[in-house]
Design a protein that fits this description.
The structure holds 2 protein chains of 2 kinds.
Chain A (H helix, E strand, L loop, with lengths): L1 H19 L12 H31 L15 H30 L6 E8 L2 E6 L33 E3 L4 E4 L4 E7 L4 E4 L6 E4 L5 E5 L5 E7 L12 E6 L1 H9 L4 H6 L5 H15 L19 H12 L10 H6 L9 H13 L13 H8 L3 H4 L19 H12 L10 H10 L5 H35 L1
Parallel strand pairs in A: 1-5, 4-10
Antiparallel strand pairs in A: 1-2, 2-3, 5-8, 6-7, 6-9, 9-10
Helix pairs in contact in A: 1-2, 2-3, 6-9, 7-9, 10-14, 12-13, 12-14
Chain B lengths: L1 H4 L3 H4 L8 H5 L5 H31 L9 H37 L7 H20 L30 H29 L12 H32 L10 E2 L2 E2 L7 H34 L7 H14 L17 H27 L8 H24 L1 H7 L3 H31 L5 H28 L16 H34 L68
Antiparallel strand pairs in B: 1-2
Helix pairs in contact in B: 4-5, 4-6, 4-16, 5-7, 5-8, 5-9, 5-14, 6-7, 7-8, 8-9, 8-10, 9-11, 9-12, 9-14, 10-11, 11-12, 12-14, 12-15, 14-15, 15-16
Classes of the chains: A alpha+beta, B mainly alpha.
Chain lengths: 472, 584
């Protein structure tokens, strides 16, 4: 008796859950209504089958439960019944499969007017490449990928010169125009996944995969990675903005092509020194950082990181959170750097400043810090040197009080909270590891031991160099 | 007369009976001891995997609350949990455990055909488990590549356990496959060659059919995993490029070139999909026998059930790429694999119908094995139906790599076979020990496990509809997630922890009943199959007395009109037939 009742509860409970559930697909933002339709058909056919079988079991377990005088019927087979059930099932299966294959046919055949967009996955960020005016994507080679050529572009291919390169920033797409997405990966498997678009495809190193869709709703969408790609998998976020045609054209004009990026002049440190005068007031004349002004050390920091942060301030991705007091102070300070050249100049000048390790002010449990730092190693390096590959800045030998403050800001969502700031969001997710302020102090104290080692190694190098000179 | 002279060799062989403890319980060649060795080891390592899943759920329900769970540890939990559950628990317990126990007894044989190889099979399996668990003690810990171990990620920096853990995992798998092959050849040969007189193939209990077909699948499928493990070991250790194209990893150029990550996926799923049925088919077979016995009614449509098992087994080799719809393989494969996958739904559905039709006009004894069997059917219905979503290629696109997948495969090949295993243990424990398992503890264990797992996995499908991706250490702020999703995750975690802890009841019951259980007698369920007709309970080494039993009927003569009891053992001659008389 109780079994029949519980089965009934399960069948009815499942139905009630389904109809009351607030959990359902997001509002669609692409042409793939056909996918939703195929899901709908499958859902109803399967739902009916579930209810029928469930209720039949409720009936049998209730009606034929062991009772006085009840004997089972001996019935080895019933050919007719078995055939009927087989045929009904086959009809149901065909009913699901036919619309499914119909939509799949549309999914794999790209309309000829679709425009190419290349999506490049890497641990753990998304980059994009658009064909320039010629409509072709230039040749690329995994072997050419480096800090200076993150897309692995072939510099000799004329078709690649006008390619628009969008590195670790938002992709914009015009509404109502079909796009053919070509996916590749620099390292491991990834999967470009925007839930609202429904479409999804793996990016596989060594080959190019594709899918297509037409964005149908203006808005900003989050990109997720849907294929396990290592410990940063859950932090591999991106942004797609679907624009009206006008907005899209305006955005496209601001994006640099491969030729423009290659032709960008190196920064001029002399010109940069003049601009740096403003920075020196807080960051110190040698870029050493000053606690009194809450300004971190700049000297010795990777140029690409400085560039990225200056741009983040300029674009309003950083220094906008109301609790980010010092970030808000910094935000207007980048405004004098009016163009890319000015930014490059000041970065070049910072590159000439002496890179002395910052004084150590933070104390903590080094052993606990070392174990906590384990999760940081992959991106920031076991010696805290930073890595362009993972876009993680150098942390060793930098101002430790600043690291503490930023880790706290990341953890509490004061930094990295802007919806377009995917790299900030990434660090935000990783910083949650550090449960309390003590953990932050411990990990920074451990980072301080790296800078000590770094100094020693540097000294050894100097001595070795001298010895060599003497010997020579 | 001629028949009298043809005494099968098994009746003549003298079985060597060991005497010392070590010889009896460790170096035993008795299939029943080996079965219990497999069973205890598998349950032991399964408990490790259960604890790992609890820790995963803690992190998913309450992120940022536990210091000891960082992304590295989390990905190691999911990898070890998945691999242990699929291979070292389910495969080992269903085939190594139940296969070993039931095949000779149900076929009416004295033992496996190769008892020595059978013993070695367990020892090698035990070594593979030790190597696997050693992962937690090597530098860097176990691999965190996910149970699918997809390269390039599995052997590159950025994935936990890339130095040692991945190697211990691959070596352990290779060793496991050696063990499985030795056991598997035994099961197949014994079923084909050592059935007793009268046990024609179409009189075999469905348990044996399920185990037989699953073993054949395993023997054909595991080599694909074996070669991919060897190839990946070579890629990792000596720098071959089977699965590795030119790669720039974390900003550094690597020396690999020309390999194909998709090649691994094809090899893995060529094993991996039949693996689903390696686990499912024994469960299908066993549950058929449990339902029939406890419903006191013949299994409905026996011949259809046999052919469904065979059809599913054959088809299972041409559906593997439905795990790869969004992998980047040629999109036209999608048409083929979606079609084959949905075709396989037909024989599977027939099995479900026949289980439920067996209950119709039956006399259902609500014993604990029956409860688990009914729970299996309804759970399997949900898991099977959601499989139609994921098999139907375009429907898979929005759902793949989301929690819908996690919910589906746990329902269909996690919870379903586990429910059957529980039912089977409650069913055959009396034969193994001579004691009944405690009924009240069993009922409690059943209700918590059944309702609890349903509460975990049914709502989890809806996380997948929302689009929540699987294998995320933490979701953080995600555009598609709101408070209600966080709440749902917490609810699932609480249900999972309750179910996990409730398994103590089961373990306790196994131990308690062994010492304090009620004596069962030889055939407590009044079942027809041969293992219940042994002269002693538990059966001694060699199973039968000087003569092997003779089979006169199929395994499902329950409630036969006009019969004295509501069951007729397979070894009982019908009127007019005398023992020793020739059989068709």
């Amino acid at each position: 008796m109780i079994v029949a009742i519980m089965l009934l509860v399960i069948v009815i409970g499942s139905l009630v859950f389904n109809f009351l559930s607030p959990w359902w697909f997001t509002e669609i933002a692409s042409n793939w209504g056909g996918i939703d339709f195929a899901v709908f058909v499958t859902f109803w056919i399967c739902g009916v089958a579930f209810v029928l079988i469930g209720l039949f079991m409720v009936y049998t377990t209730w009606k034929y439960r062991r009772r006085e005088g009840l004997t089972a019927v001996y019935e080895p087979e019933n050919k007719r019944l078995e055939w009927i059930l087989t045929i009904v099932t086959t009809i149901g299966v065909v009913g699901m499969l036919a619309p499914g294959l119909w939509v799949w046919d549309a999914y794999v055949n790209v309309p000829p007017q679709a425009r190419d967009v290349e999506i490049v996955g890497q641990q753990w960020s998304w980059s994009y490449r658009l064909p320039g005016e010629d409509g072709y994507l230039g040749a690329v080679d995994a072997r050419r990928i480096s800090v200076d050529n993150p897309f692995g572009m072939d510099p000799d291919d004329p078709r690649g010169q006008d390619d628009v390169l969008i590195e670790r920033a938002a992709l914009h797409l015009p509404i109502d125009r079909p796009v053919k997405v070509l996916l590749r990966s620099k390292d491991v498997l990834h999967d470009f996944y925007v839930p609202e678009f429904r479409a999804k495809m793996d990016a596989v190193p060594g080959m190019i995969t594709y899918m297509w869709f037409t964005p149908t709703r203006v808005g900003t969408y989050e990109v997720l990675c849907a294929e396990l790609c290592g410990i940063g998998h859950h932090t591999m976020r991106g942004t797609v903005v679907v624009d009206t045609a006008e907005d899209y054209d305006a955005w496209l004009k601001t994006q640099a092509t491969f030729a423009q990026i290659s032709a960008r002049p190196e920064g001029d440190p002399v010109a940069g020194q003049i601009a740096y005068a403003v920075c020196a007031a807080c960051h110190g004349p040698a870029g050493e950082g000053m606690l009194a002004f809450n300004a971190p050390k700049l000297s010795g920091q990777d140029p690409w990181y400085l560039r990225h942060q200056i741009l983040a301030y300029r674009q309003g991705l950083r220094g906008v959170h109301e609790q980010d007091t010092y970030g808000k102070e910094m935000a207007p300070m980048v405004l004098p750097l009016i163009d890319d050249a000015a930014v490059e100049n000041v970065i070049a000048y910072i590159g000439t400043l002496p890179d002395d390790p910052a004084p150590q002010t933070v104390e903590g449990d080094i052993h606990r810090g070392a174990s906590l730092y384990g999760g940081c190693t992959v991106c920031h390096g076991s010696e805290g040197g930073g890595s362009y590959g993972t876009f993680a800045p150098r942390v060793a030998g930098m101002t430790d009080w600043y690291l503490v403050r930023q880790l706290r800001n990341f953890r509490e969502g004061i930094r990295g909270s802007h919806r377009m700031d995917n790299l900030g969001k990434q660090m935000g997710l990783m910083s949650r590891q550090l449960g309390d302020d003590e953990a932050i102090n411990d990990v920074v104290a451990y980072i301080n031991t790296m800078s000590t080692r770094m100094t020693r190694t540097a000294m050894h190098h100097t001595i070795d160099d001298r010895g060599e000179t003497d010997g020579g | 007369m001629a028949v009298e002279a043809q005494v099968p060799y098994q009746e003549a062989i003298d079985v060597h009976h060991p005497h010392s403890w070590l010889a009896r319980y460790w170096f035993s060649q008795d299939h029943k001891v080996i079965a219990i060795q497999y069973g205890i080891t598998a349950i032991g390592v399964g408990l490790v995997a259960l604890v790992l899943s609890g820790m995963m759920r803690l992190q998913l329900g309450f992120p940022d609350s536990f210091d000891f769970i960082d992304p590295e540890a989390y990905y190691q939990f999911i990898t070890m949990h998945g691999m242990i559950m699929v291979i070292y628990l389910l495969t080992a317990l269903l085939l190594g455990g139940f296969g070993n126990y039931l095949v000779p007894l149900m076929c009416g044989a004295r033992d496996m055909v190769f008892p020595f190889v059978n013993m070695i099979s367990y020892h090698v399996y035990f070594v593979s488990v030790l190597i696997l668990l050693a992962s937690y003690f090597v530098p860097g810990g176990p691999t965190g590549a996910g149970w699918t171990l997809y390269p390039p990620q599995a052997i590159l920096t950025g994935t936990p356990g890339v130095d040692w853990g991945i190697l211990t995992m691959l070596v352990s798998l290779a060793v496991f496959i050696v063990a499985f092959t030795m056991g598997g050849l035994n099961y197949v040969t014994t079923i084909l060659q050592a059935r007793t007189r009268g046990m024609s193939l179409m009189r075999m209990p469905l348990s044996i059919w399920g185990i037989f077909m699953a073993t054949v699948l395993g023997l054909l499928a595991f080599p694909a995993l074996f070669v991919s493990a060897v190839m990946m070991i070579l890629d990792k250790t000596i720098g071959t490029s089977f699965f590795m194209p030119a790669i720039s990893s974390l900003g550094e150029q690597l020396d690999y070139s020309g390999g194909s990550p998709l090649l691994f996926q094809h090899l893995f799923w060529f094993f991996g999909h039949p693996e689903v049925y390696i686990v499912a088919l024994p469960a299908f077979g066993i549950v058929s026998d449990l339902i029939s016995t406890h419903a006191r009614k013949n299994i409905f449509g026996y011949r259809m059930m046999v052919w469904a098992i065979v059809a599913i087994g054959v088809l299972s080799f041409i559906v593997w790429a439905h795990h790869m719809y969004v992998s980047g393989m040629h999109p036209y494969f999608g048409f083929f694999f979606a079609t084959t996958t949905l075709i396989i739904a037909v024989p599977t559905a027939i099995k479900v119908y026949n289980w439920t039709l067996t209950l119709l006009r039956a006399n259902i004894h609500m014993t604990v094995p029956m409860l688990f069997s009914i729970a299996f059917v309804i759970t399997f219905v949900v898991g099977g139906l959601t499989g139609l979503f994921l098999g139907n290629v375009i429907v898979d696109v929005p759902l793949s790599d989301t929690y819908f997948v996690v919910a589906h495969f746990h329902m269909v090949m996690g919870v379903s076979p586990i429910l059957v295993i529980f039912g089977a243990i409650y069913h055959w424990y009396p034969k193994m020990t001579g004691k009944m398992l405690d009924d009240r503890i069993g009922q409690l264990h059943f209700w918590i496990t059944f309702l609890g797992t349903y509460a975990i996995y049914y709502p989890m499908h809806y996380l997948g509809f929302v689009g929540v991706p699987r294998r995320y250490f933490a979701n953080g702020e995600m555009a598609i997630i709101d408070e209600s999703v966080i709440l749902l995750n917490q609810g699932i975690t609480i249900a999972a922890l309750i179910v996990g802890v409730a398994q103590i009841l089961f373990i306790w019951n196994l131990i308690y009943s062994y010492y304090r259980g009620r004596d069962s007698g030889p055939n407590p369920w009044k079942a027809t199959t041969l293992e219940w007709q042994t002269p002693e309970t538990p059966p001694r080494h060699g199973n039968w007395e000087s003569r092997l039993p003779t089979v006169y009927r199929w395994a499902y003569d329950y409630s036969v009109p006009g019969a004295k009891d509501d069951f007729i053992p397979q070894s009982e001659p019908s009127a007019g037939e005398r023992e020793g008389a020739p059989l068709a």
